[in-house]
Specification:
alpha+beta, Glutaredoxin, eight-stranded mixed β-sheet, 5 helices, about 40% helix
């Protein structure tokens, strides 16, 4: 029995290690204006990037992005990093995504994954889903869900990686 528990624990820990050094997928996404780009090309080399996956129907997603947007100018004075969002809304909601982003005054990149190709590539099910990508373009942190104030923990991780 102890051996089975050890094997299961080892497999679980090795999957976490793999996730922490996962490369960015080359999956195609669209920018807010409809231009098709590779997700991996959306990142500036040599900079840490925080990525929030969201949907127009997801209240916690919108709250997380609102809280990050509020703190972003202060954070970016302290640390040189990028922030972007990726909507997982389907193609019928593209106009709604664009309208919502504009109404909220978002100046950071908003990418669209209308067919869930990127979502499948990254193998996640629910939003809010957050990634931190290191300076070398590797996914080093993944998290699902949002609680008020958890954006501060994300920023701590960004600061550590940006050193």
């Amino acid at each position: 029995m102890k051996k089975i528990v050890f094997v299961i624990a080892s497999l679980f820990l090795s999957s976490l290690t793999f996730a922490q050094s996962q490369s960015l997928p080359n999956t195609s996404v669209r920018d807010i204006n409809g231009k098709q780009i590779s997700f991996s090309d959306a990142f500036e080399k040599g900079k840490v990037t925080l990525v929030s996956f969201w949907a127009t129907w997801c209240v916690p997603c919108k709250q997380e992005i609102k809280n990050i947007k509020t703190k972003l100018p202060e954070w970016q004075k302290e640390v040189n990093f990028n922030y972007m969002t990726v909507s997982i809304d389907d193609a019928r909601a593209t106009a709604m995504v664009k309208t919502y982003a504009k109404s909220q005054g978002w100046t950071f990149p908003v990418l669209l994954d209308p067919n869930s190709d990127l979502k499948r590539s990254l193998n996640f099910q629910n939003v809010p889903y957050t990634l931190i990508v290191d300076k070398n373009g590797k996914i080093v942190y993944q998290h699902t869900g949002y609680e008020e104030g958890s954006e501060n923990e994300l920023f701590k991780k960004v600061k550590e990686l940006a050193k």
